[in-house]
N-acetylmuramoyl-L-alanine amidase (Mediterraneibacter faecis), 227 residues
Amino acid sequence: MSTSRRNQLAGRKTLPKNTRRKKKRGRKMLRIIMIPLMILLLFLLFKSCIQKKNQYADVDATQPEMDVQLLDVNPYSRPGTTIDHVNGIVVHYTANPGSTAQDNRDYFNGLKDSHETSASSNFVIGLEGEIIQCIPTWEMAYASNDRNADTISIECCHPDENGKFTDATYRSLVQLTAWLCAKYDLTADQVIRHYDVTGKICPKYFVEDEDAWVEFRRNVQDALEKQ
């Protein structure tokens, strides 16, 4: 061994045996504590994923409560045109943050006087999950352009600009959509967005978050399977 190496070894301080044992025990205790914590963390993460997946497990395809406030028959929002066959459900958002279902229903009905535009929807779902029916399901609404004649439309209120629905609105949307699918013998694949008809960013959140749209249709299918 070289002189420099001996000098290096000679300069080291040797820890007392008790200190070494304490450090070893400390490391062992840390491992004993960390392993259960990691298991607990993984369990909580798994539980969170399961709960998120099953968040709407209690929603089925029964007819939801709704307030029937049919629009007056008029050329601007309720033409009174009969739908021969329902081939799909179209989901929309109001693009009017903070507005209520009643606000939107009254706006549609007011078009008979204002003649501002032609617009309406069969249903409007509010921020608290309340559902107002504006047009019978066997009549056409002015909502989905080329698909007005063979679809039922649902407008959804939203609290802010990002277009995401409240949980109450979402739950009602899942149940209402599932009920309509069951009523007209449709599948979740026949539920579409306004975007899928015209390319319009509507409903905004479901267009910008494709995974959220896929999850919504999965929730609808799950509700249908509870029949």
DSSP finds seven helices and six strands in the chain. The mean pLDDT is 88. Residues 89 and 191 are 5 Å apart (CA to CA).
